[in-house]
Amino acid sequence: MVKRKTVAVIGGGVSGLAAAKAFDERGHRVLGFERSHDFGGVWELSRSYPDVQTQSPKDLYCFTDHPMPDDYPEWPKGPQVHAYLHSYAAKHNLARLFKLNTNIKSMDRRAGGGWTLTIDEAGQVYTQDVDFVAVCTGQFSDKNIISHPGQDGFVKAGGEVMHSSEYTDASMVEGKRVVVLGGSKSATDIAVNAANNGARSVHWVYLEPVWRIPYFVGGINFKRLLYMRAQEQQFNTWGKSPLQRVVAAVLKPLVWANFRGLETLLKTQLGLKKYGMVPKIPIEKDVSCSVPIVTPGLFEGLKAGKIKNIEGTYDRYDGKTIHMTGGEKVEADVSILAVGWKLGVPYLPDEYQQKLVESDGQYRVYRISVNPDLPDMGFVGFNSSFCTVLSAEMIANWLVRYMDGQLERQPSEAEMTENIEMMLDWKRNERPAAQIYGGLCSAPFHFKHFDELLADMGATKRKRSNPLAEQFSYPNFAAYGEFLASTPQYQAG
Ligand SMILES: Cc1cc2nc3c(=O)[nH]c(=O)nc-3n(C[C@H](O)[C@H](O)[C@H](O)COP(=O)(O)OP(=O)(O)OC[C@H]3O[C@@H](n4cnc5c(N)ncnc54)[C@H](O)[C@@H]3O)c2cc1C
Predict the structure, then answer these.
(1) What is the pTM for the complete model shown?
(2) Of 85, 114, 301, 467, which residue is most buried, by most CB within 10 angstroms?
């Protein structure tokens, strides 16, 4: 009989909801903590910038048992995703498991196993012992704050500097000269939104051009082209057997031709050359969680001259002039820094942080979830992807079985360490793009990652019965529900 445990779920975004459901379903006592006043994480309304929408199509951004509503568009808007997450919480009665406005300040290892959490619940601080901690605090919780020489002078001269997450209302930029710094989708979303909502001028500054995928590539929804096993197998994956290496070498010219074809299509469709935006790195080496989707209106804005792009970064502010590293000077009233978030688990003691993160920032996590030197805890949602809701649900189901010793392939400490070292070596030497976000990204290897998790869990069904559909279509959320249901079931008690 599996013993019932008290499990802390830290965070109430996509991953926290997935974890709370998975642990609750197995009969564990779940204590969920969310520091904000509401569920949703990055989709919580006060944190979203205007016009935010998913990069993933709606049937690639949902839980296995809960499709997005039919009347949602293919790429739902932020408030729709927020409402969807609430409907998932309601469907599984998850709100009863969470305390909102409750911040985990620290977690300390207990001598007999488990952790003691120090909790700040709306100003009241207390401790709570738990047997296991599911860390679901995501990769977008603590703003990356940067500044450039002369910023104080810019502000004194009437300029305003803000992090992208603080751009919550287009009226902030009406009639103003705006500069957006950053190459991610949030940067282009904000640049387009500002340009379309009365900003006097918009400059968009990024370090270097990267491949951007439009929602429709050559008129076809990108999910039908880029998310399939057949495509995934063309990227250099980890753990190849000698035979797989030989096959890859034989097929190399075909793979090369496939990706050059894709690059040509993207260059032509988006007019990348005209805007000096042709990336230097071949697309097959670049694809990871950092590859952005093209914000609708971006290239139209560039064409119309409403958005001006500059390659480089800020060198300094001088009064209300921003000097760029390439020598350009731009007059600005508002400087929006879309420079991302600080990755980390700040409430974890230093000695454990050192065991978790290598000196080059790479995380030591088996299946992107657990570390043998950090007992009684695991991460949900650190396996981010292009379909993070499904990734979070998959790993949550894996983690509860791992905690209970119920994986069919329950790994030993030595196996986990060996696998972690193999993955680190692959990221550092074979696929540098996989080092993005501390190496915490399973894209573009969704199928392979899910295959491993399902095999670990002992799923008897891991692929759709139609081999063509399996090879040439995107991950199907409902099918993954069936695969999860085919794993051995049990209850703690
Ligand atoms: C604008 C935007 C668009 C995106 N679009 C897509 C997309 O289309 N497809 C895709 O796959 N992914 C997308 N992502 C990635 C997105 O982060 C994930 O899809 C997913 O929402 C992450 O959920 P999460 O629960 O892991 O993390 P988060 O949503 O960041 O939630 C973490 C939660 O933990 C809470 N928390 C943090 N620290 C503490 C603490 N100490 N105590 C208590 N609570 C704490 C936070 O308040 C937060 O609510 C997007 C991200 C952004 C920012």
Answers:
(1) 0.95
(2) 85
